[in-house]
Amino acid sequence: MTSHFWSKLQPAQKRTAFYLSLAFLIPFLLVAAAFIVQGVHPFGERMILTVDLYHQYAPFVAELRQKIFSGESLFYSWNIGLGINFWAVFANYAASPLNILILLFPLKYLSDGIALITCIRAGLTGLFFALLLRDIDNRREDLFLCFFSSFYALCGWVLAYFWNIMWFDAVMLLPLIILGLRRLMRDRKPMLYCLSLFLCIWSNYYAGYFICLFLVLYLPVCFLTVFQRASLKAAWSSFWRFAVYSALAGGLTAALIYPTWLTLQNSSATNNTFPTDYALTQNLFDFLGRFFVTSYPNIRDGMANVYCGVVIFLFVPLYFLCTRIRLREKIGNGLILIFMYFSFSSRILDYIWHGFHFPNQIPYRQAFLMSFVLVIMAYKVIRNLKSYSTTEITITVAAVLAYLVLYEKFGEGKEEIYEIFLTAVFVIAYGMVFNMILRGSKSLHTQKTLFVGIMAAELTVACLVTIGLVSRDESFTGWDFYGKNSGEVSSFVDKEAESGAGGIFFRTEMYPAYISNEPTLYNVKGMSVFSSTADQRLVSFMRSLGFHNNGINGVRNFGMTKVTSTLLGVRYFIDLSDNSPMPSGFAEVSDTGDLKVVENEDALSVGYMVSSDALSYEPQNLNNPFKTTNTYLQSLGTNAVYEPEELTAGALVNASFSSGSAENGYFFNVSADDVKTEIHFVPNARTAGSHLYLYVQSDKPAVVSVTATDPDTSETVSTQQETRAGQIIDIGTYDPSSSPDVKLSWDSASAGTVTVLCYSINDQAYEQMTAALGKSQLTVTSYDSTHLNGTVNAESDGLLLLTIPFDSGWTAEVDGQDVPIQSVGNALMALSLTKGEHVISLAYIPEGFGKGLAVSLASLTVLLLLAGIPFGREMHRRMKKGKELLAAREDETRRMPDDLLSMHSAQADRVQTAVRRTDAPDEPEADKVPEISQYE
Predict the structure, then answer these.
(1) Which of 104, 110, 519, 914 would you label with 900, given CA atoms 20 to 30 Å apart?
(2) Is the dihedral of CA 2, 7, 13, 15 positive or negative?
(3) What digits encode the pLDDT tens for the residues 874-914?
């Protein structure tokens, strides 16, 4: 079938297909080769899931996958953070249409699918940029088209952030959007522009925001390059179309973007204030070092990743020297480059570019825009290379080499000597080829072979080395753990739901908790969350209960205690490694195969009756989660369960005991920075057998070791656990006869004060808590991803506390009547109920979805009308013209004598026969491009 199709193509079509395919294959294969070199599965035992791809993007794509397979709504997920608006998560992380390819891969091979899609994205980036360059260059096609497209497809942004699958689509679609903009202006055909911009914003609104800002900047330059003679009429026609179709593209995404925007109002992404500092944060001399081949991939901090080829770097000054490029175009592109540089240097512009927010790591996320402009400029140079003199080329090469020498001596950036050396090698190689071309000392074939060979070598080195640096410094982790035992986990959870032992709705947490959104990966209802769309109020609430958190958008199960797991309805804890530090004090579940599972039989339902006083509770005293939890319990109408315990200070290294008490904590002064530090102490609990917990306030988390001696065998037993910031630390059951010693250690501590709190659970108070809160629980009768139904028998008037994050998208009915949903602790939901039995129904639609959908439908209607009206007019014109021609022929036929009519018919037959016998025409001369036109 394919060979038959290929044989029918004209030579010009075959030529186009060949070069466009090559533009796709070069970046696709180079990225794939880099993954293979790094031992990415199935070519090794590693995977590309690193940084946030490991913790966020891949788990959310897995959630999308299971929702599609199960037919669930995309509006909500119970698997993330006690329950979350998944529509906003989808918009932020997983809306790329390419993610649909994940359906082809089993969950265990999720990382393999993501790696393949990453290669495809790189290939499509090269293909789309080649389509743009082809349009700019009057449809010329050759190897330069393919390799210059690859320099953009493998620019510094891509090589550093290839793992960022949620923003990559914007890089990929930008050339297609600009191609559509050119057609909108030149041909008055707006559909490619509108639909590609819509797709970009839909794939990720945040990266789409970068594109929208850039379009406003690039619009005048694009206009000046499209029209040889700029006129007011052409400008008006272009600009109003740009405004209308840009608005329609945005309007089409409103059903997704507007509800997401409302959700973000309660997240950390909107809590920064506008900066007033006008100082520049970097200098131009060091910034130019970011164009070195294999420049270090800055992911956590540092200057922008703007590398896009040494040949591009060489061509920038030549671009402004070229007499064949119009001055107005040079001015336009020059101003954009200057503005982009100041966008990297100015805190104010950086704040605006990042959506009026300072990013948390991953700096200068819009850097690919500078690479985009630079490659287009350089492509103009290669097409005018014959216009330069040997002197101009030599001076440019010498200037760049001089800069490399000066950078090695005076540069303060991160670029190392091997980067400078490699860059110098390629500068010299390119300089030699340029001079060869200008002198004509070798054949055209030799010139092309050497030029293309050097570009191929540079792309290969840049790709393999830079991705290798990401793998080394950010860790391509082991393939086997991700999704390990997913089938067994699903079987266990389904079996427990069917048995009804813990009800049909229960929560589960996974261990070891290496992955921030692990419940999502395993499709279990959990409390862990790490998402930019997470409600910051919920994070603050969970932090006050002693869970590890980042203070803004992430909470993990480190710090779970018997108390908090009961309050939040976390019933099961599944250990994938059989030796993970899990909350203690629970019974192990038998007959679970390869899984180790413990069960909290006291876990409460997702809803239970509490005192109405809970409405006035607000989280506070975040530096003592035990005291905060006690206050919270008292607001619910039950007793405090945590009691302070005394500590006796022991041996100290680089620290001294200051003061303290059981109630307020014990204070230790750390003397020196970045020095190994140890703090030993002995707990002196009131009651033997009580469960002890620590909370350590320090700049860096400590390693906690507990050493005890068995009184019967005199055998010493030690346990050790690494802790996380902000978490309660479980140190087990207190046995004074074992002479326990607790050690906090830091390999490199920060000078300052370390505060240690030690509390125990009062078992009697805990039992009273479970009894009081367990009397009137919600019995869940049915639920899905956007509904929860159940019954409750309230023994008295009060609140039905729902351990579901407060979200305006929820609506509630009690006994068939609408009731308002109230907030507890600015985090959880509650319904006011009277004494007696009640039927509870909850339903969820993201806030603002209805309005957003209305805007999207209206935009689609307008777009169809705008597309249909010209089409209808053209069809009407053609039909009218056809009728007129038919009427004229009929009138001519009526007037024609019979003998002339016969002659006319015979002549028509002869013409048709001749046409059938005529061979296909030769290839048009316009498609035969002389070889010398490679350079001019």
Answers:
(1) 914
(2) positive
(3) 676 778 777 777 777 777 666 655 554 454 455 545 544 44
Instruction: Name residues whose C-beta falls within 8 Å of residue 871's C-beta, 6 or more positions apart in sequence.
Output: none
**How far, in Å, CA of 564 to CA of 546, rounded?**
9
Please state the domain extents for the chain: 272-475, 499-616, 642-761, 773-844
Q: How many CB atoms lie within 10 A of CB 703?
A: 14
Q: What is the DSSP letter of 508?
A: E
Cβ–Cβ < 8 Å for 492, 595: yes
Helices (H) and strands (E) in the chain, counts: 29, 28
- CA 857-860-864 angle, to 5 degrees, is 140
* CATH (one of 2.115.10, 1.10.3470, 2.60.40, 3.30.450) for 773-844: 2.60.40
- Six-digit token pair at 861? 């209607």
Beta bridge partners of 895: none
For 417-427, b/e burial (b = at least 16 CB within 10 A) is eebbebbbbbb
Determine which helix (DSSP H) or strand (DSSP E) holds 596, and give its type and residue range: strand 596-599
What are the two backbone dihedrals, phi and then psi, of residue 767, each rounded to the nearest 5 degrees?
-65, -40
pLDDT for residue 934: 54
- Which string of b and e fits 37-59 if b means at least 16 CB within 10 Å? bbebbeeeebbbbbbbbbbbbbb
- At 827-863, the pLDDT tens digits run 999 999 999 999 999 999 999 999 999 999 999 999 9
Architecture (CATH level 2) of domain 642-761: Sandwich (2.60)
Give residue 640's pLDDT. Answer: 95
* Alpha-carbon span 875 to 190, nearest angstrom: 19
Q: 3-state DSSP call for residue 638?
A: coil
Cβ atoms 707, 743 nearer than 8 A: yes
Residue 707 sits at φ, ψ, to 5 deg, of -115, 130
CA 191/CA 870 separation, integer angstroms = 13
Its pTM surpasses 0.85:
yes
Which helix (H) or strand (E) is 307 found in, with range? none
DSSP 623-689: T-HHHHHHHHHHHHTS---EEE-EEEEEEEESEEEEEEETTTEEEEEE-STTEEEEEEEEEE-SSTT
Residues of the chain with pLDDT under 70: 1-7, 269-272, 874, 876, 892-936
Kindly report whether the peptide bond that precedes residue 275 is cis, defined as omega within 30 degrees of 0. Answer: no
Sort 159 into a burial class: Cβ within 10 Å, 0-12 / 13-18 / 19+: buried
C-alpha closest to that of 369 among 170, 659, 82, 166: 170
Extract the tokens encoding 93.
């992380």
